[in-house]
Automatic annotation (TrEMBL), chain B:
SMART domains: AAA (SM00382). Residues 4-242 form the ABC transporter domain. Belongs to the ABC transporter superfamily. GO terms for molecular function: ATP binding. InterPro entries: AAA+_ATPase, ABC_transporter-like_ATP-bd, ABC_transporter-like_CS, ABC_transpr_LolD-like, MacB-like_ATP-bd, P-loop_NTPase. Keywords: ATP-binding, Nucleotide-binding, Transport. This is ABC transporter ATP-binding protein. It comes from the Bacteria.
Amino acid sequence: MLTMLGIVIGVAAVVVMIAVGNGARDRIAAQIRSLGANLIVVTPGSVRMGSVRLGNGAAPQLSEEDALAIQSEIPGVVVAAPLLHAREQLTVGSLNWQGVLRGVTPDYFAAREWRVIAGREMTPEDNRRAANVVLLGTTMLQKLFGETAPIGSAIRIRGVPFTVIGLLERKGQSVWGEDQDDVALVPLRTARRQFVGTSRTNPTFVHNITVKFAEWLSAEDTMAAIRDLLWQRHRLRAGQEDSFMISNLAEAADLEGSTTRVVSVLLSAVASVSLVVGGIGIMNIMLVTVTERTREIGLRLAVGARRRDILVQFVVEAMTLALLGGILGALVGIAAATAIGAFVQWPVVIDISAVLLAVSFAACVGVFFGYYPARKAARLQPIEALRTE
Amino acid sequence: MALIDVEELSRSYRIGSSWVKALDGVSLTIQQGEFVAVRGPSGSGKSTFMNILGCLDRPTEGKYRLDGIEVGSLHHDVLASIRNRRIGFVFQSFNLLPRASALENVELPLLYRRMWPGKRRRRALAMLEQIGLRDRASHRPAELSGGQQQRVAIARALVTEPLVLLADEPTGALDSQTGQEIMTILRALNVAGLTIVVVTHENEVAANADRIVTFRDGRVVPEGSETPGGLDLGATRHLSLVRTNAR
């Protein structure tokens, strides 16, 4: 029992490691999917006024025209959607809720792969007319309306009446833990006119541009192309700081994966050490067994066992021992992974093929460490083996 | 042709820096169907001789032909096969596997012959039947008396249908009555045609044999120079009579 402990711990660690790793991988993939794949976000950078340096995003650097230029001039860009945002108080009857209000064009829905599940989509016409229409995220909907279907209902945003035209598909939490569904989307021009206002230097400024690029393009190439284009358009000279920032959302999401990778490396270190220790334990117990059973080996040789028969017998015994430990370890690992999933809210995915792989690896450890004692048994001289007490 | 033909056989052991001769030029032939008792004081080389006959040990010098095959220089796998097919062993301490049932113990040599489990089982059961222990087939050695254990061991030795049965002090661990029962079984087997070699230091046991070979200091004491003690001539005559009838 104690002999198998090393193998048990080793296999359990492998199973937990793979379960946690798979869980993390799935979660990251889901988050990237919720953001929308192949996305780049351009935000305004810092600006220098004389000797005063303003922080990133302080100045209205990006414009609707920049978005148009990115979309039309860079090959492989599917859409470049400009966006304005504000925090506003929304009121329905006696209920009110403050949430994120975004001014967007219909392109934004394409970029984020965000579907409308009820009502209608935002049209270019809504934007052109600066119509007072709004689409609600699921959280926002619940806070304002509860369970009732509100398509066509009136809603006030900073006192201005709006009509709810659609409900957005649920996106869930973002990588940063922000609720992506606590949002109301209005047309870009409506947002500018009613809430954000304009800037004298840049009448069509936007808070960011969401760029979706084609599958066949790499994020790096697209980012470089956007940077070149914006340098030209903003008339920046060599040595000047960028007036904008370009970030790749998938990369940001991937960053979180590195935490789980650290955990995985740690667990695999534990796993390999305990498998080796377990293997040595098995070798030890098998050497003891061979000594204890010398007479039995002698008898088997006397009735006609060949050296190979004895070798196979003891290798199989070591392997069985390791296999039992492996199966036990797999059960412990599955239990531990499930417990981690339940208590620590860490996503775990138990992959049966990985579990089987870990168990068969344990059996291999048994064969490897069982070989030496088995060979020792097989090399015994029958007469000497029979004579031992 | 003799079943066992030993010529000038020697076996030396190295103890420290010196060599000790356990066997020193033994020549002996045993014919098919003989019942031979090997007798001698401890240290006379009789056990060493028995081990070489059983292909458990190899001679240092000399020749040993079993059924016409020169055994001394064979590969260990071939020796294993000879032990499996031509030789049956019975030991003083039974040497049964403690965790296996009587039936499994009897099956053991057939296992190493790669025999199918069903056939193995049938043959082992038939053998237990013959030895009168069919109803004890599922018992473990610890649940059997000494005499029953030795009978299981005999069944194990005979299940392979060997050319010769080698018994090393088969009654040494048994009381005299049980020992005599075992010898009765061996004698009956011999009557049925089996060649038997028994190592013993008990005269009553040796008295069951047709021929007694006495060892002293690693050599065979020439016949006639020592009268086989305790051998009752009447018993011998009676035995040969039984054998004649059996044939």
